[in-house]
Design a protein that fits this description.
This protein has about 160 residues and is an alpha/beta fold. It has 7 helices and 5 strands; from the N terminus they run E-H-E-H-H-E-H-E-H-H-E-H. The protein has a single domain (about 5-160), classed as Rossmann fold. Strands 2-3-1-4-5 form a 5-stranded parallel β-sheet, sandwiched between helices. The longest helix has 23 residues, at about 115-140.
Length: about 160
């Protein structure tokens, strides 16, 4: 396990899990949100985002935390381990509510209020994005793919490292 992708619905705890995994393994951690977003909630130019991502992917060791469907196949091609936090929608919504107002090392701003568009994405994640993740997994049987259905399963995995 040297190049790890961590994906899942927003609010699933990708960043928290990834930080714990980085601490256990010593692998460098990259949060995709920090490559994509500015502190004023604007995105960087696509070319800059892709350039930043390419620099990370060129490394021999890394953990990349984040979804971004437009680059997931590219990241899957380079990873050796794919971790999917496949949690219920309500758990993810609770995760989003719990982090509101709290500074996070994986985001360049503090979320202070509910974003209706973001909430709609979360509510549709299991019917829209989740099947795409499983299609990607099916296309890469050579990769080590780990699917956690609960935070407890993820915690057991981390504790076993």
């Amino acid at each position: 396990m040297k190049r790890v992708l961590v994906v899942g619905c927003p609010g699933s705890g990708k960043s928290v899990f990834s930080r714990a995994l980085a601490e256990k393994t010593g692998l460098p951690l990259c949060h995709l949100d920090l490559l994509k977003w500015n502190a004023d909630k604007t995105t960087v130019a696509r070319a800059l985002f892709l350039n930043r991502l390419e620099r990370v992917l060129a490394g021999e060791e890394w953990i990349i935390d984040g979804n971004y469907a437009s680059t997931m196949a590219q990241r899957m091609d380079r990873c050796d381990t794919f971790i999917f936090l496949d949690y219920p929608t309500e758990l993810c919504l609770e995760g989003i509510r719990a982090r509101r107002g709290t500074p996070r090392p994986d985001m360049p701003w503090v979320e202070t209020e509910e974003d209706e568009e973001f909430t709609a994405f979360v509510l549709q994640y299991n019917t829209v994005s989740r099947p795409q993740v499983f299609e990607l997994i099916a296309r890469h049987p050579e990769k080590r793919c780990i699917v956690f259905k609960s935070r407890e399963e993820a915690e057991i995995f981390l504790n076993a490292l």
